[in-house]
Amino acid sequence: MKVLKGSLIGGVIVCCIMVFGLNHWDVLYGRYIAQSFFSHLTTGNLTAASEDIYFHREDGTYTREGNGANATWIERVQNLQEQGIHAVSFKSLKVQNDDGEPVGSVILTLEEKGELKDYRLVFFFKGNLSDFGIIRFQQIEAPDQYPKWQEALSGAL
User: Fold this and answer.
1) TM segments (predicted)?
2) Which residues are within 8 A (CB) of 65 and not within 5 positions of it... i.e. 6 or more apart?
C-alpha cells in the first residue's frame, strides 16, 4: 500500500511538472537563449551569439542563418567595436509571458568610448522549440531613438 501511495504521489508530481513545463517552455527556453546570447555577446564570442538571433530581411521575412546573415551581423558588431562601442556586461535578465508571448528584459552595460552606460532593453522571440531565437531589441527609456549600437545588434539585414 505504501509503495502504491508513493508511486501515485510521484506520478502526480511528474504530471504537474510536465504540464507546467509544456505550458511555459517558451519562457524557460527564452531565458536560456537570452542568457546564451548576452553571455556570448559580452565575452566577445560573436559567432555563438549570432546563432541565438533571427535575422530579418527587407521583404519582412525572418531567417536564422544563410546567405551570409551571420557574417553580416558579426561584421556589423565588430565595426561597432572598432568605433569604441561594445557590450561589457548584463544584469537583471528576465523572461516572462506577455499576452501569451515570451518577452524579455535586461540591463545591458555598454562601453562607449571609455564611458560605461546602462541601457534597459526589452526583446522579443520568434520560433518553436527546435528553432527559437531573439528577433528584436528595443530601448525602454528612448523607444523612438535607434542608436548605432541598437542597429548593429538588431537582426536587420
Assistant:
1) 6-25
2) 50, 51, 55
Q: pLDDT averaged over the chain?
A: 84
Q: Which residues of 82-117 are buried (b: 16+ CB within 10 A; e: fewer)?
A: eeebbbeebeebebeeeeeebbbebebebebeeeee
Quickly name the fold that domain 26-153 has. Nuclear Transport Factor 2; Chain: A, (3.10.450)
Helix residue ranges per DSSP H, the chain: 2-23, 25-43, 46-50, 69-82, 148-153
Those residues with Cβ within 8 angstroms of residue 98's Cβ, 6 or more apart along the chain or in another chain: none
How many residues can be counted in the chain?
157
Angle of helix 25-43 relative to helix 2-23, nearest 10 degrees, comes to 60
Backbone angles phi, psi at 118, to 5 degrees: -95, 135
On the 0-12 / 13-18 / 19+ scale of CB atoms within 10 A, 129 is exposed
Coil, helix or strand at residue 75: helix
Which segments in the chain show pLDDT lower than 70?
A: 1-6, 10-11, 14-23, 65-67, 143-144, 146
